[in-house]
Amino acid sequence: MLIRFKKTFEKIAMGLLSFMPEGKDLKKLQETIQLYETEENWQLFLYKRGDDFIGLIGVELLDDEAIVHHVSVNPSFRNEGIGKEMVLKMSSLIGNRTVCPNETTKPFIEKCIHPNEGTDL
Ligand SMILES: CC(C)(COP(=O)(O)OP(=O)(O)OC[C@H]1O[C@@H](n2cnc3c(N)ncnc32)[C@H](O)[C@@H]1OP(=O)(O)O)[C@@H](O)C(=O)NCCC(=O)NCCS
Question: What CATH number should be reported for the domain whose range is 2-113?
């Protein structure tokens, strides 16, 4: 289940954001969470299973596009399809916008959106 971020989830969200490549930089992490808390078009969603928050996806909403800036799954729950499920669920929440990656999220988002690209099918 995808749940919209709110301030009470700040610590858990920062924990999940810290799995991103740039996540070891605490200052950057604080700037990122601040962005999602203050900018209306930056939207963050947490993936909840049972009582646990185990994933996160964050997008910047533009007129026609939703740029995925952050996507992260707790290492204990990877390779179960949660990351892909978050991308698909998030895309149903953003109206007619096209899901686009940024440079960091490109490999995974491309894999989710165009799973057969680059193969000899
Ligand atoms: C990237 C991440 C979110 C994937 O989450 P996940 O729940 O393990 O992914 P899924 O199980 O939904 O994987 C779906 C498919 O994407 C592939 N995949 C996983 N990570 C990938 C990556 N970094 N780049 C490209 N493809 C990837 C999987 O192999 C799987 O392929 P398959 O359908 O052929 O089996 C997770 O590994 C993570 O949190 N990484 C650290 C944060 C990070 O680096 N985020 C940016 C990644 S570009």
Answer: 3.40.630.30
